[in-house]
Amino acid sequence: MDRRSYLRSTAAVGSILGAGCLSTFRDSGPTVLDKPEWRRAESEALSFPAFEQQLPEVTLPSPLHNREVTTTEFDSERHVLLTFVFTRCMGPCPVLTSNLAQIQVDATENGYGDEIALLPITFDPQFDTAERLRTFSADRGADPAADNWQFLRPPSFDRAIDVVNGTFGVGVEKTETYDQDPRKGHSDTQTDGDQQSTGHDGSNAPFVHVVLTLLVNRDGYVERAYDGSNTPTPAALIGDLETVRNGFD
């Protein structure tokens, strides 16, 4: 199911259930954080899940833990952070993954590791073997063996596009040089309205894709969708997560 169809279906269910769902919301709505001032567009106008929208449900292999993970399985138990990367990237993908790793470190040091789930998702499964995902995670500072670190790997590129582009609305495309030089990475950026995609020099990079990290509360609602127009520092991410955690105490 693509992102637009998902939104229509959830809206229809919401109109039927109505008041029955209100008890699960915060006092002012389904989120702890207020609407971000830096977001120009309304959530409904964006291709990806954004403020106060529900996290789509997808099930993917988690090869570092030899199991499958469903994105919504943490509802009522853990706050979730997701991002979309490929390991041969030499631009933002290592930073996006490192941001989640620093959250994991902070959670370990401050005793809330069992309150979060960190879900980087690769869209390059042909290249990103389990061993590459393990090494990439460790090189970014994560503990890939921890149960709160689930690096998800679709079984094929077609499935990756179906999930990342179709379900989550995160634009990703192969370039003409896909698989020709895995050492090459990002080299330029392209901005389109309220989304910023990270591009490549078409002569040397395998993908062009949108940069996105989602912070989702344990009720399954998006608190923040950080795209290329507002890439947070690790401290900002940890601060937003702390506010959300405190809102559920």
Automatic annotation (TrEMBL):
According to the entry, every stretch annotated as the Thioredoxin domain falls at: 49-246
Keywords on this record?
Copper, Disulfide bond, Metal-binding
Which Pfam families does the record associate with it?
SCO1-SenC
Residues noted as binding Cu cation in the record, renumbered to the chain:
C89, C93
**Where does the signal peptide begin and end?**
none
- Which residues are connected by disulfide bridges in this protein? C89-C93
> Region (Disordered) spans which residues?
173-204
Q: Which domain of life is it from?
A: Archaea
Q: Which InterPro entries match?
A: SCO1/SenC, Thioredoxin-like_sf, Thioredoxin_domain
* Compositionally biased intervals (Basic and acidic residues): 173-189
In terms of PROSITE patterns, this protein maps to: PROKAR_LIPOPROTEIN, THIOREDOXIN_2
Question: CDD domains from the xrefs?
Answer: SCO (cd02968)
Q: Where is the composition biased (Polar residues)?
A: 190-201
What family does this belong to? Answer: Belongs to the SCO1/2 family.
Protein's name according to its UniProt entry: SCO family protein
Q: Could you tell me which species this protein originates from?
A: Saliphagus infecundisoli
